[in-house]
């Protein structure tokens, strides 16, 4: 599905790649090069609009066009539960933080769901006024970055939760001029985030999330669809849409181009990686 706002690819810790195509979620086991079908959603609820593995590599969340989220056990091919009442429209982005599944919707809402309990909605973040298309938790689990079709990046801080501050937003970052889907926390430095803008922006920006300051901005020349870090080599991989549909490998912090890979005939909307020695193994 050629939809910039959806997140239809995720590589789990068990070396299994989840791929959503229309109403069906497929699992590709990289260890055995085998593919299986996890589920096909009925037309009333589909298509699938996002997939996200839990850290255990066994449980997977499936976001749907009808605003619901299904939780599945991939080992037994069994649906565990359905999360309802989180959103009013499709769920295009998700991110796990331990037992908390954070979901972002076309309604602009961000919701923390505690999957262990019946009344699963434990926190709601209000800040975006258009679709939330990017969500990423920091490695510490204390900061959440969100990107939206409103061209905004928001930083939310779990450590600042209080009854007087229900949103917990610490920064509203307004420098992008197009939708922000691509988000990636720098793995070797705390409080540092990379974000990528859509077709009207085409930049990768680096943020100090403690101060809310933009440290650097690089014009890539193309719509930025996704970002991935290689922490061992301090390299950043970006995937792109209009105009070049390329992959670019950057050296950080100089942002010198190490490689540029052409060949895709349409935009590279999704990239996920598993680390092989010190390099990337990617699917897009």
Automatic annotation (TrEMBL):
UniProt cross-references to Pfam families, sorted A to Z: WD40_CDC20-Fz (PF24807)
This protein's record includes keyword Cell division: yes
WD repeats: 41-82, 125-166
GO terms, biological process: anaphase-promoting complex-dependent catabolic process; cell division; positive regulation of anaphase-promoting complex-dependent catabolic process; protein ubiquitination
InterPro entries to which the protein is assigned, alphabetical: Cdc20/Fizzy (IPR033010), WD40/YVTN_repeat-like_dom_sf (IPR015943), WD40_CDC20-Fz (IPR056150), WD40_repeat_CS (IPR019775), WD40_repeat_dom_sf (IPR036322), WD40_rpt (IPR001680)
Molecular function via GO: anaphase-promoting complex binding; ubiquitin ligase activator activity
Keyword Nucleotide-binding attributed: no
GO cellular component assignments: anaphase-promoting complex
Family membership noted in the UniProt record: Belongs to the WD repeat CDC20/Fizzy family.
Function as written in the Swiss-Prot or TrEMBL entry: Component of the anaphase promoting complex/cyclosome (APC/C), a cell cycle-regulated E3 ubiquitin-protein ligase complex that controls progression through mitosis and the G1 phase of the cell cycle.
Protein name: CDC20/Fizzy WD40 domain-containing protein
UniProt organism field: Gossypium raimondii (Peruvian cotton)
